[in-house]
Structure formats: structure tokens, C-alpha cells
């Protein structure tokens, strides 16, 4: 299973649609950066020559963390000398595209390596569901659109791509148990890695008080598109049944559960927790330009980048299946066509969580 999603889209600097401001419109990113900046004002700074360590958990290709890390470094620079080294550690699973990650860090116009000469990049190819950095070594942590991915698929969903819309109660229970286990493991190991006084900012899918996971029009378009491909013989019914997007949204109580009853776990405590509906930036553009085709294409492109790759696990030959490219091309086109025909605003429930490691008294 992946441990990251590409949410901030990779657009070249010479693209007519590229601006740093456009990237800030990625769902929940701007408010998450504000939370991250606040955390950067409060974490302890080690004495030089020991570097300030920022960990990016679930880095993917690096696009999601460029602006947040830049913002945090700018805050830290107000608190320390310009030559004080900052070490940014990007983590993801071993099969992540680390070549793309390092190319992003080298070439992207928003890379922090161009903006701060005393900042250095490294990467760790291990799952964040284990301890992957030395104990008490991380001053500031960031994780966006990553912890929603389960460490394993606990059951076949069968009647939908997303467990939130599955009709089988036993399947929903299995996914809830796996989600609880994964969150427990994630924060347990981050509690060891954070230094006393360190903070970790997490942005992830959530479920609000209305009980909604969100994304209904997009997921419906994907399901209809897959069923059409099965009708056309490009996919088998069994492959469609086994396809799923193993992500979960968590409620406030789910985030808080490991900390009960004392409010602390591995010396961590929740310093800040908010669940909100993020802005659908594609819908915002559509309301301005009334370009339904562009609306459909943007959401279809988002789905292809962020979730289509995991669907290939259900193909007969997995990621190496020779049909994969055609399936994704046709599925993307089908999703775009359906959303173009009936544009609807997406509900995007998100959570910002700040975890604080309290120093020993």
C-alpha cells in the first residue's frame, strides 16, 4: 500500500498555470502551512553544529511538502543564524519514486534547496509504521495526505472502491480496526523520534460531525467508469470487485483514542485538532469560468495522480499488467466526461492535528 498521495500537482515553472499561489490552493494546504509555521515558532532549536531536523513523513514526489518546508525554514531562520544547518528528511516506502523526489528537490522552482543554502535534503525508504529515525532526533515533523493510507487491505470491499460507502458492516469494522491500529503505530513511533518539545503536524482525510467521508461525485464516476470497462471486456468483473482505494477518514474520537484516558501517549499529546471541509478549488474555478470540461478534467487528473496507481494492484499482472496504461487512459477520460456532464462541488473533509512531545519535568 502507498504511504502518500500526490495532491499538489507537478506543474513546470514555464506552465501558464504554474504559480506558488496556485499550489497553495491544494485542499487544506494553506491553513496547514499556517499551523506548521506556528509549530516552527515553538519547537526547541538545538545548538550548532547539531542540525535542526525536519521530517517529512510520506513524501511521495515531494510536491506536497515544498511550500510547507520552505515556510517552516523561513520561521526557523528568524530564530537562528543563517549558517545553522537544517536537515530535511523525506520518508516513504521503498517502492516510492525517490528519483522523482530528488529531481523535484533539484529542479522545482519552489525547492527549499534553492532558497536556503544551509538546508540539506536526505531520504529514508522505510514505512512510517515503524521507527525509521533515531530516537529524540526530530525537531519538527510534517505529514500530509499520507496517514489516510492503510498499511494493508484488511478485506475486499466488493461493492465500492471506498469503504466509507460499503454496504457490508463487517468490512467497515475491519477497516476501522486497521485504521485504529495504524494510527496507534504511527504516533507511537513518532513519539520516540521527536525530541522533547518537538511537534508533528498532520493533515489527513477526516470525517466530520455529519459522518461524511466526501468525494461522492468523483467516486461514483470512477465506479461507473470501471464497470463500463468491464462491460467492454477490458477488465474482468473479478478485477473490478478487488479494486479499492484503501484510505480512511478519521473522526475526532479516532484521533484521540490512543491518548485516553490520560491525554498522553509515548509522551505525546494532542495540542491542536480541527476537522473542517476544505475548499474544492476546481469547483471555485468552475464557478468563475463555467468551464465544465476543465472542471471534469482537473478532478480526473487529480484522481489519476493520487489513487489510480493503487487500482492496478487488482489487475491480473499487477503494476506490470500491459493493459494498465489503456485502462487508466480510458478511466480518466470516462471520469472527466461524467463530471463534465454533471459538475458538482466535492465535499473534502480534512483534519489538522498537531502532536506535541512534552519534555520531562
From TrEMBL:
Question: Which SUPFAM superfamilies does this one have?
Answer: S-adenosyl-L-methionine-dependent methyltransferases
Presence of the UniProt keyword Methyltransferase in the record: yes
- Tell me one Pfam family matched here: Methyltransf_7
What top-level branch of life does the organism fall under? Bacteria
Listed A to Z, the keywords are:
Magnesium, Metal-binding, Methyltransferase, Transferase
Keyword Lipid metabolism part of the UniProt annotation? no
Question: What biological processes does GO assign it?
Answer: methylation
Cited InterPro entries: MeTrfase_7, MeTrfase_capping, SAM-dependent_MTases_sf
Q: Which GO terms describe its molecular function?
A: metal ion binding; methyltransferase activity
**Stated name of the protein:** S-adenosyl-L-methionine:salicylic acid carboxyl methyltransferase-like protein
Amino acid at each position: 500500500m502507498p504511504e502518500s498521495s500526490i495532491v499538489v500537482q507537478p506543474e513546470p515553472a514555464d506552465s501558464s498555470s504554474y504559480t506558488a499561489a496556485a499550489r497553495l490552493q491544494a485542499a487544506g494546504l494553506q491553513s496547514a502551512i499556517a499551523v506548521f509555521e506556528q509549530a516552527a515558532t515553538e519547537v526547541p532549536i538545538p545548538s550548532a553544529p547539531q542540525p535542526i531536523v525536519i521530517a517529512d513523513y510520506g513524501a511521495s514526489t515531494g510536491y506536497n511538502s515544498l511550500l510547507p518546508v520552505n515556510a517552516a525554514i523561513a520561521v526557523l531562520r528568524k530564530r537562528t543564524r543563517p549558517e545553522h544547518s537544517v536537515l530535511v528528511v523525506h520518508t516513504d516506502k521503498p517502492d516510492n519514486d525517490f528519483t522523482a523526489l530528488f529531481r523535484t528537490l533539484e529542479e522545482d522552482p519552489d525547492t527549499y534547496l534553492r532558497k536556503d543554502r544551509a538546508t540539506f535534503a536526505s531520504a529514508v525508504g522505510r514505512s512510517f509504521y515503524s521507527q525509521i529515525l533515531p530516537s529524540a532526533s526530530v525537531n519538527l515533523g510534517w505529514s500530509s495526505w499520507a496517514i489516510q493510507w492503510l498499511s494493508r487491505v484488511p478485506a475486499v470491499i466488493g461493492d465500492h472502491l471506498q469503504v466509507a460507502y460499503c454496504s457490508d458492516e463487517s468490512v467497515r469494522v475491519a477497516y476501522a480496526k486497521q485504521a485504529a491500529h495504524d494510527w496507534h503505530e504511527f504516533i507511537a513511533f513518532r513519539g520516540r523520534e521527536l525530541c522533547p518539545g518537538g511537534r508533528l503536524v498532520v493533515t489527513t482525510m477526516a470525517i466530520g460531525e455529519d459522518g461524511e467521508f466526501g468525494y461522492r461525485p468523483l467516486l461514483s464516476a470512477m465506479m461507473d467508469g470501471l464497470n463500463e470497462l468491464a462491460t467492454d471486456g477490458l477488465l474482468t468483473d473479478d478485477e473490478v470487485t478487488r479494486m479499492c482505494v484503501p484510505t480512511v477518514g478519521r473522526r475526532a474520537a479516532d484521533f484521540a483514542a490512543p491518548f485516553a484516558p490520560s491525554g498522553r501517549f509515548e509522551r505525546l499529546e494532542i495540542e491542536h485538532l480541527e476537522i473542517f471541509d476544505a475548499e474544492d478549488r476546481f469547483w471555485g474555478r468552475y464557478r468563475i469560468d463555467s468551464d465544465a470540461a476543465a472542471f471534469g478534467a482537473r478532478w480526473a487528473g487529480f484522481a489519476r495522480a493520487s489513487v489510480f496507481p493503487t487500482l492496478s494492484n487488482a489487475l491480473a499482472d499487477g503494476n506490470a499488467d500491459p493493459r494498465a496504461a489503456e485502462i487508466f487512459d480510458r478511466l480518466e477520460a470516462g471520469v472527466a466526461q461524467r463530471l463534465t456532464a454533471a459538475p458538482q462541488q466535492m465535499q473534502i473533509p480534512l483534519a489538522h492535528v498537531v502532536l506535541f512531545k512534552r519534555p520531562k519535568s
